[in-house]
Amino acid sequence: MKKYAYLLAIALSFNAAAAPMEASIAQLQHEWATANYQIPEKDREAALKKLAEEAHQVSVSNPGRAEPLIWEGIITSTLAKYQSKLSAGGTAKAARDLLLAAEKIDPAALEGSALTSLGSLYYKVPRFISFGDHNKAREYLERALKVNPNGIDQNYFYADFLLEEGEYAKSLEYFKKALNAPARPGREDADAGRRTDIQEGIRKAEKKL
User: Fold this and answer.
1) Which helix (H) or strand (E) holds 4?
2) 3-state SS of 22-89?
3) pLDDT per residue as tens digits for the range 112-126
4) How far, CA to CA in Å, does 141 sit from each of 101, 109, 171?
5) Torsion angle, alpha carbons of 109, 167, 89, 148, to 10
6) Using CA atoms in the order 148, 138, 170, 158, what is the torsion angle rounded to 10 degrees?
7) What is the pTM (predicted TM-score) of this model?
8) 197-209 tens-digit pLDDT
């Protein structure tokens, strides 16, 4: 009986510690969706820079956990998108390193989001002046799909990669699968923005066919 009570106390302690982390991550998710999709584009770099600093504090407060590192990596990689070429390369590398650290802890965390984000980074950054590698991109994106085959992000980024690779019919297939992905409770703002991205991808793929 004492052993059971001891194990229960440990479990309750772990859950209590996890709750603030989960709340912090939920807040980061909403702030990221706002910064990436809703505010004027001219204001996005500043908003994402501030958000990356907030995300770093969540990572520091939760050592050894993949989830905060994933979101710090996602926010940092999005920041690179809005920076000048001079700054973006270093920021993208910082994002890659955060996501690699998260992958090492738990590649399946947040339904394989580290794998998805690494895949997107490897095909979006330049191949000749940075760490871009389309073979690695394909590997990561296909691994992410194995973790979450019906996810909106997993299917969208794989479709976008295939579009860039010139595999237009297959790209269209995955864009449509992403469009029909199950809604994510609590992520309605991100889903709405992503569906806009998907519709744009479908238009591009159909134009190539």
Assistant:
1) helix 2-33
2) HHHHHHHHHHHHHHHHHCCHHHHHHHHHHHHHHHHHHHHHCCCCHHHHHHHHHHHHHHHHHCCHHHHH
3) 999 999 999 999 998
4) 17, 15, 13
5) -10
6) 50
7) 0.89
8) 999 999 999 999 9
